[in-house]
Amino acid sequence: MDHHRRYIVGLSGGVDSAVAALLLREQGHEVQGLFMRNWEDGDSATHCSAEQDLACARQVCDQLEVPLHMVSFVREYRAEVFDHCLREYRCGRTPNPDVLCNRRIKFRAFLHYAQRLGAERIATGHYARNIERNGAHHLFMAKDTAKDQSYFLYTLGQHQLARATFPLGDQVKAEVRALAEQAGFDNFDRKDSTGICFIGERDFRPFLSRYIEPRPGPIETPQGVVIGQHQGVSFYTLGQRQGLEIGGRAGHSGRPWYVVGKELAGNRLIVAQGHEHPLLMSTGLEAADLCWVAGRSPRTPLRCSAKTRYRQGSQSCVVETSSADRARVLFDQPQRALAPGQSVVFYSDEECLGGGVIERSFTEHALERRHEIA
């Protein structure tokens, strides 16, 4: 880094953001912390968790002798993240709130607020690398590939990356915890947060049913045999095995059942046996709402790799853009359970190029002739 800067670090209460602040402080930068409140909704469990998070953030700032700011983005989160996700679920899709939260809250609302506080840049505890070359910013996977979070950051463009830093990009998790312990942070061994961004880990169906009215209907095999009842197609996603509550059924083997399709019009949940049932396997997909890190669409057809879910290995594919906002992706090998609403993210080796939201897979038409598929 060519000179010392003023950074505002988004402190969540977790160890990763704490060490991000520590590393910047050790590099001689001016550091301030910012704790965001993004969820309330009369939830006492979340309130208690948020108070614990805030206490950890305060202890980190006390250890580093830096100021801590607090801000509420509850209204923004509800309007721009949570309500959007509810609309997607009601349409039978499976949204990714972490991607949307990064796009709308952490790298827009937080960024704007930090700039008003005088920040030159913001920093977060994401595991990713932001590398500048010849005046352009490139997003790369983290050194710790097991913790890499570039998948959730693909919507960031040049404007955001020019103002953001990821100090943990070259760290591995064990080193991060060791640094936190050496610094005297109380959260050095705190469990990593999981679940919905800023809401936390929940029993998914009961939580969602507080906002989406259950609409029970039949669970059917591809041949139309009713073998159970679902609580509402909004509560299930393609490839899901757990929570179907159908167990073994007469006339069928004891193999596990998986969700292979959802029919909103008839309120039917289609299930089949076999982890790689033909109705779950797709040769490609159509994506919309494309975002490119470089700020412009690459020349296509583009041979690259892609991930259709977090922690998935990179899958070789060809991307063909049909417009600035839409693309068709063809995979070298069939892919399992491509869920509309989830993100497809494109890579060239370790560099994240961008991505989009899955609109449909190229096996969805097979549901129309599902009676033919055993």
What key phrases describe this protein's structure?
single chain; 374 residues; Elongation Factor Tu (Ef-tu), domain 3; six-stranded antiparallel β-barrel; five-stranded parallel sheet
Please tell me about this protein's structure.
The protein is an alpha/beta fold and 374 residues long. The protein folds into 3 domains: 6-182, Rossmann fold; 213-275, Adenine nucleotide alpha hydrolases-like domains (SH3 type barrels); 281-366, Beta Barrel (Elongation Factor Tu (Ef-tu), domain 3). The protein has 7 helices and 17 strands. The chain has helices at 15-26, 44-64, 74-90, 97-116, 158-161, 173-182, 204-208; strands at residues 6-10, 30-37, 68-72, 121-123, 128-133, 136-141, 164-165, 217-220, 226-230, 257-263, 268-273, 281-292, 302-307, 315-321, 327-336, 343-348, 351-361. The strands form 3 sheets. A 6-stranded antiparallel β-barrel has the order 12-15-14-13-16-17. The protein has a 5-stranded parallel β-sheet with strand order 3-2-1-4-7, with helices on both faces. Strands 9-8-11-10 form a 4-stranded mixed β-sheet, with no helix packed on it. Helix 1 packs parallel to helix 2 (44-64), helix 1 packs across helix 6 and helix 3 (74-90) packs antiparallel against helix 4 (97-116). The protein is globular and about 65 Å long.
Write the layout of secondary structure elements.
Layout: E1 6-10, H1 15-26, E2 30-37, H2 44-64, E3 68-72, H3 74-90, H4 97-116, E4 121-123, E5 128-133, E6 136-141, H5 158-161, E7 164-165, H6 173-182, H7 204-208, E8 217-220, E9 226-230, E10 257-263, E11 268-273, E12 281-292, E13 302-307, E14 315-321, E15 327-336, E16 343-348, E17 351-361
Parallel strand pairs: 1-2, 1-4, 2-3, 4-7, 8-11
Antiparallel strand pairs: 5-6, 6-17, 8-9, 10-11, 12-15, 12-17, 13-14, 13-16, 14-15, 16-17
Helix pairs in contact: 1-2, 1-6, 3-4
